[in-house]
Each structure stands twice: as C-alpha cells, then as structure tokens.
Design brief:
This protein is mainly α. It is built from five helices and no strands.
C-alpha cells in the first residue's frame, strides 16, 4: 500500500477476501430455513461456529484460482478499448503468482503470452 501499487493492493485485498470466504463455516440446510422466534438460540455466542482452517495446500489452491480467474478474464478482453483493464488483470495475476512457491508453469506462460 505504501508503494502505491494499485494492482498489488487490489489483488491482495480480493484474495484475502476469497480466503476469508473459503474459511467460512458451511451453512447447514436447516440453518437456511427459518425457525420460530421462540425456538431460536439466544445468549452470547449461541450462534457462533468454528471457522474452517485451510491447509497450506488449500490456501495455494485459492490463490491459484484467483490468479487463473484474472488471466481468464484478461484473455476475454480482446477489444482495444479494454486493453488497460486486461493489463491490470494480468498485473494482478502476476502479483498472486509471485506468492506461490511453485507457480503453475501454464499460468506463468499464459501471463507472458497475453498481448500487452
């Protein structure tokens, strides 16, 4: 943020949100249906549930999926009017791929193969 790298900030914020969503407790079908007010739990922490803890592999998969999503979107933006947006998406994907110890060679090749 201090470096004012907008692509990095955008990519990292959205990826942190995706990781947060992946760690959310799964909703039960029964929870989705309403219940009578008098039957609802009450008291401090009555509806608290433990979050899912992602493994290192799970985190890598979420980061890789975020990078792939940006590369796919950049590949779809072929019109000259969208060149700036496609370049920003490629820059965001590059930021995310740098965080992976062993980046997917296909994704790295896709970043470099896309026209500027």
């Amino acid at each position: 943020m201090r470096a004012r790298d907008k692509a990095a900030v955008s990519a990292l914020r959205s990826t942190l949100a995706a990781l947060d969503n992946a760690e959310a407790a799964p909703a039960d079908e029964a929870d989705l249906r309403g219940m009578a007010l008098e039957a609802s739990p009450s008291g401090a922490g009555a509806t608290e549930v433990a979050r899912v803890e992602l493994s290192e592999h799970g985190v890598v998969e979420v980061v890789r999926a975020e990078a792939d999503e940006r590369l796919d979107a950049a590949a779809q933006l072929t019109a000259p009017a969208h060149a700036d947006h496609a370049a920003r998406l490629r820059a965001e994907a590059e930021v995310l791929l740098r965080f992976l110890d062993d980046p997917d060679p296909a994704a790295t090749a896709a970043v470099s193969a896309l026209p500027e």
